[in-house]
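User: quick one, sequence for these tokens?
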């Protein structure tokens, strides 16, 4: 399987317990973060901070939508899933 076309929706993760499913897709207006799941009410700010931190580290300047379906993922798992989804979105790694 070849590299996917950059700029198309990409995912990483699962909906299993202690994981999260991250989807990144183009957005015409700005970077937008949508989070749903078990820990959102308590950890939204921390999760948004981690997502932005990872994307900034990767040099993301695109207007993208990041959708996270959280099922109890710890910080390091969330970061890894965001990184993998972004690299897939950019066409750097295979799906």
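Assistant:
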């Amino acid at each position: 399987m070849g590299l996917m076309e950059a700029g198309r929706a990409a995912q990483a993760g699962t909906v299993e317990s202690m994981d999260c499913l991250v989807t990144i897709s183009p957005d015409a207006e700005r970077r937008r973060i949508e989070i749903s799941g078990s820990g959102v009410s308590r950890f939204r700010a921390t999760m948004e901070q981690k997502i932005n931190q990872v994307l900034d580290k990767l040099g993301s300047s695109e207007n993208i939508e990041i959708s996270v379906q959280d099922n109890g993922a710890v910080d390091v798992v969330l970061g890894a899933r965001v990184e993998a989804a972004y690299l897939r979105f950019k066409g750097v790694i295979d799906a």
